Protein 1
Amino acid sequence: MKITYIKKERGWIWRAYLPDPKSGGRKDFKSKQFPTKRGAEQDAEAMLKNYLGGGFALPSKTTFEQLANQWLRAKRGELSKRSSIYFYEQQVNSLNLFFSKVSIQDISPLMVQDYYSTLKEQDKPLSSGTIIHYSKTLKTILKFAVQMKMLNNNPAEGVKPPKKHKKQIDPYSRAEFIVFYEAIKSHRLFAFYRLSAFTGARRGELLALRKSDIDFTKKEITINKTRGLAGSEVIEEGLTKTDLPRTISIDEETCQILKDHFKKMTLELSSSPFPLQGSDYVFTQEDGSALYPSTPSNLFLKVIRKVGLRPQRLHDLRHWHATELIRSGANLLDIQFRLGHKDLKMTLGTYGHLRPEDKSRIAEHFAKVMSIS
């Protein structure tokens, strides 16, 4: 069997006249375009290996949208969390904006590379981290096509998305944090921000916190759920595989702030015209109903603007907590557990940096310990 390599305007293709496993006759097969001749040669080698092994995929008229929907249907059967299902639904919707009507046989490495470049160069460019998420989903969908004998190889394999540049975490200094802390003290949700900053818990974890999760005797809170948005739907579910359930200690003052918070909630509920009885959430609206997930974030932004602090996210209070623990000399394994990280690598990857003032302090500390004259 002879394979011919043909130079096209935007790359190379291979062409082969082979027996058709379906009809029994012979058929002229052509590949998609590859940026280099070597790419076409490698694809032809993979085709021959599959062909001789009985796994050769005949050209398919299936569009990417059809393939992606088939993959998504199978994926839904694997997932139990609504948030995970929503994540992949959004991924597929975004990929379909570019590939939807394209035949999967026509998707080439060059087209995949063009897709990544488009995401980076559009009017509102996506971050490298977001593009990497899309690239992983795209590769998985096309791998599914190979497994289903709809493609002979994965055209997204080997095409690299833009490199992710790690963003330096720069939470508030202690002085900045105190400005925010004093400004939020009089608000009915002050206890929420106290817990956020003094435990490092995530927004969703605190929104899902129940009164039964607090043990004032042991001075501990148990975090085992999260509450947030999947599109416009409010969902509550268990933590992800990388966010471990944990019971963490809280200080005496935080305990007192929480006790005061519950007293205020009881007074609010008694004066509400339509109180919602039986709610066990720690943080609620005045009528006892659960807080809408975006409420704490919106309030945080409103307060820092009012007091003139530099822009931050509510999540940066978690970073502030971790950074202050590291600067105080806390054990990294203890910090890992407190934050709910699956492993120490995640903690080090996020908080392994040191501020310039800390570096000089370490040098002075080492010299003092050694005290060699």
Protein 2
Amino acid sequence: MALSGGPDSVCLLFLLQRLASSSLRVGSPPQISTIAFTVDHQLQSDSAGVALSAARYARSLNIRHYISTIKWGEPPFPNKPTSDAKVESVARKIRYHLLLDAMKREKLQIICTGHHYDDQIETALMRMNKRSARSGLAGMRDVRRWGMGDRKSYFDGLGWAGSFGMQCWIARPLLGIRKVKCSLESAL
């Protein structure tokens, strides 16, 4: 699974670990195993610390964990964009490239992300703002094929998944669940 270190992905990792533990049968191999992958984007001063914290949490659950660090300006990575809007889209493209590389290395076909219902609403609103077609307004799917990537990405190699991408899936098991925010006062 993709583990950002934020509350959504940490929650999902916990749930996946519980699911894997409950699938164990005496004398048989595990039915489900989980590996966590964190991408250190190097965009905030504490990004390495957040990645290490994610690693510690995964290890506390006896889950293998790997960190991939974006080295801006070192091939195959571009220089860090100067505009905030561009940084987000380039960082996403690189993140998915690194996650797919990790899936290849580990011979995995499914990766889970911690996207939830509120992320779905945000995605639909952003796409509406960009005047997406009706199909784009549908938002994210619970499960979708990774896909091959786009032709523009073929030349930089970062967004191109090729035939391997057609064998891989992205799953968002929390997509139908709202993120509940509460304050200490409302909890009491």
